[in-house]
Amino acid sequence: MKTSAKITWCPGCGNFGIMRAFEKAVKMIGNARVVVSSGIGCHGKIADYLKVPSFHVIHGRVPPFLTGFKLANPEMISVGFVGDGDAMNEGIEHLIHAARRNTDISIFLHNNGVFGLTTGQVTATSPKGQKGRSTPYGNPENPIEPCSLMLMSGATFVARAFAGDIQKLAQIMYDAMKHRGFSFVEILQPCVSFNNFWGIRDEIKWVERADSVQTALKLCSDKKVCGVFYQKEDETFEEAIYRIYRR
Amino acid sequence: MFDFNVCIAGAAGDGVKEAGEVLAKLFSRMGYNVFVYQEYESLIRGGHNASVVRISDRKVHAHRFYYDAMICLEDYVLKNHIERLKGFLIHDAKFECEYSNSFPVPLSEFVKEENLSFLYRNAAALGSFCHLSGVELKFLNEVFQSEYGEKSGVDVELAKIAFDYAERNFDRLMEIPAKKSQDGNVFSGSEAIALGMVDAGLEYYFAYPMTPASPVLHFLAKKKLAYAIQPESEIAAIMMAIGSAYAGKRSATGTSGGGFALMSESISLAAMAEIPLLIILAQRSAPSTGMATFTAQEDLYFSLSPAHGEFPVIVASPLTLKDSYILAGTLLNLAWKFQTPTILLTEKHMTESYENEDLDGVEVEEVDIFSSVTDDVFPRYEITESGISRFAVPPAIVKCNSNEHDEFGITTDDAKMATEMYAKRMRKEEEILKEVKKLEPYWLIKNGQDTIVTWGSNFGAVLEAAEELGYSVLGIRFLRPLILPKLGGNVICVECNYRGLLAGLIERETGIDVARVLRWDGRPFTPEEVKEELARR
Ligand SMILES: Cc1ncc(C[n+]2csc(CCOP(=O)(O)OP(=O)(O)O)c2C)c(N)n1
Ligand code: SF4
Predict the structure, then answer these.
(1) Which among B502, B505, B534, B535 is positioned nearest to B517, based on CA atoms?
(2) What is the pLDDT at residue B182?
(3) Residue B354 and which of A145, B75, B219, B374 are 20 to 30 A apart at CA?
(4) Cβ of A76 and B246 within 8 Å?
(5) d(CA B320, CA B332)
(6) Å between B248 CA and nearest CA of chain A
(7) pLDDT of B339 above 60
(8) Cis (ω within 30 of 0) for the bond into B481?
(9) Strand B33-39 relative to strand B354-356: parallel, antiparallel, unpaired?
(10) Nearest 5°: phi and psi at B200?
């Protein structure tokens, strides 16, 4: 499933695991037609490496791009790889709107808690106090919790996984792509160069999905808890549009 | 020659705009040509609204400055117009008025008696107008019926009450005969743009509301002529359009200056990824929020250089309502032919004016699209002599990229590849130039030695003034690439901005001096105003 592009991620980067898990998940689906879009940052390079139709777009704009694509080609499974800087800082509004629309796309957030490609500044998911190149004396801001935000925005599939557990990540990616509606997977992705948290591997706890948003919110509040937190069926954006425009 | 200019004025919420449209449709049905100028403020109730309806034997693309008749629904708006009034005045009898040639009609009382909202005074006012101007009431009823369908009964009834009242109390002032019976097709510029895009194969339109571009979205949504979708922002709108174009569907977006500024980064993306996309830019008064509902031509340079980086882009601006239809369709076709963004630059005075027209002539120009599934990555950006590569869409393995890329769409910083790929994209400019030369890049109407140059909706007013005074007229349609004829004599440019943006462009291109007739008060030129300006020289 690889192109001839030379991979330029740092050796040991969590992105390798994410890519391997994705390849596994696509194989699990079988002869599915998958299209991929990625944002700007180290994570965004994944589009170059995968031998699938892809569009590497600009900072933060993966969700509207995929929304337009999915409306025009509902046959294809549409997957967006986004970064925490890319989707939680610039372009955060698009993610919230995609969630509330329940557009049938899957968003995989590479959450490494830093801007990787611009060399280690803090992002909206970095904890208060974290030091980065633009915050040498500590991050003055409180972090956003992506899974809670997505649950509150009406996402119909919300999960968290770890880039180091390829088997479990692949299963969650598969479930997300199979889900009819907006699915969001936060992937804890260690960045060996600027935020190395490979050490959390042994502390990760896996949980079963909750049957209410309230319980799901509680589950995901612990950053070391992974699993599918919540899933429900609802009319998708595309279905609503086709229903209205049935001509 | 019959040439009659009526102004309907009142507050927002009085149905002034609708009354103007109805009157235009009425006269269009009677076989006349019409032009309607809509002036309104950015508020929902109150304020000053006016609809100026011009009726003529010949084709006109402008309203006139002076009114032959006026319908006034509120006393306080009269002062804005009284100096322009040279004919008769119909006003609501609820207020008194000193104007000598005036006809008070108890419009408010009529609607009160019928227990209706004040909104219906417009129907009554049109009824009394029909008597005074000698128009058969049946034409008005026909328009009400075709516009409002089952709900038209109330309008028909009120029009009759006011017609009868006028007949009992006033003599008929004139006789406007029906010349021939026709469909009365009257369109706004926005509708013409929408229909042009649809006839050129538009399937998806994404737009965030912004005056004066919103009516394109409203019209497409109401008529379901294309998927018309309102996302969270202009950025989302253009990105969605890029998404659906990547999927192989003809897509467009539309906005005004502020929204266009937000789209800028994505226009650059579309250019880099060679995504075909039409962007409607309907100008209004600026900078910033400016005067939201008033016209301007301030974004010329912005549209010519709409985003960071160098890339081919085609910019055209329609001169008339029919031209709005033609150019919207043409630009959508050109976007697909050259796989690059195209911009329809127009302005509030065009999108919200009305004319009677037959809109036809635009067709889909098909392009080949590869969509088969193969094992290999499609060479989407194959280096070609023309700069145009084959187009492919998923499920074919087609990779698009905002980064500089190789022929397969894979990111590269390689100096040789970057040089070739950049040049490949830029070579399209030569092909575009050849194509635009064949597409009437300008209209040149010869009347005399000296030439008035203009663009956009000024064209109508300029044409009339120039014909009367013996000037040639050069109306520029394509602004990028800009192709100019040889210009002799004095050259005067008429436009709605402060510096004379087109004039500056022509000076740079040709080295000749261009005189300027400019305004930036948000109001469009009328033929009288252009004539006065020229006479003063
Ligand atoms: C509009 C815009 N602003 C800023 C940048 C510069 N930029 C490139 S990558 C990046 C950060 C990406 O961070 P993240 O999304 O966390 O991705 P990572 O590199 O960590 O995978 C930024 C700000 C850009 N390319 N475009
Ligand atoms: S900087 Fe961090 S995120 Fe980027 S490739 Fe290196 S390890 Fe991975």
Answers:
(1) B534
(2) 74
(3) B75
(4) no
(5) 18
(6) 8
(7) yes
(8) yes
(9) antiparallel
(10) -90, 10
Cβ contacts of A149 within 8 Å, gap of 6 or more = A95, A96
**CA pair distance B319, B452, nearest whole angstrom:** 14
Residues contacting ligand 2 via CB (< 6 Å): A 9-10, 13, 15, 42, 112, 116, 191-194
- How confident is the prediction for chain B on average, in pLDDT? 97
Q: How big is the A-B interface in CB pairs under 8 Å?
A: 128
B205-226: b or e for each residue (b if 16 or more CB lie within 10 Å)?
bbbbebbbbbbbbbbbbeeebb
- Tens digits of residue pLDDT in A23-53: 999 999 987 799 999 999 999 999 999 999 9
Q: Give CA–CA dist B483/A4, Å, rounded.
A: 44
Dihedral in degrees, nearest 10, Cα atoms A175, A176, A180, A182: 160
- Which pLDDT tens digit goes with each residue over B417-452? 999 999 999 999 999 999 999 999 999 999 999 999
Tell me how far apart the alpha carbons of residues B107 and B124 are, in angstroms, rounded to a whole number. Answer: 6
Report the predicted TM-score, pTM, of the whole model to 2 decimal places. Answer: 0.97
- Residue B233 has its nearest CB partner, among A54, A71, A93, at A93
Q: What is the pLDDT of residue B180?
A: 81
pLDDT band (50, 70, 90) for residue A247 = low
Does B224 touch chain A if contact means CB atoms closer than 8 Å? yes
How much is the CA Rg of chain B, to the nearest whole Å? 25
Per-residue model confidence as pLDDT tens digits over B485-512: 999 899 999 999 999 999 999 999 999 9
- Assigned token pair, B38: 């809509």
Contact B229, B209 (CB under 8 A): no
Query: Which token pair is A119?
Result: 């060399």
Longest dimension (CA), chain B: 86
Question: CB within 8 A of B438, min separation 6: which ones?
Answer: none
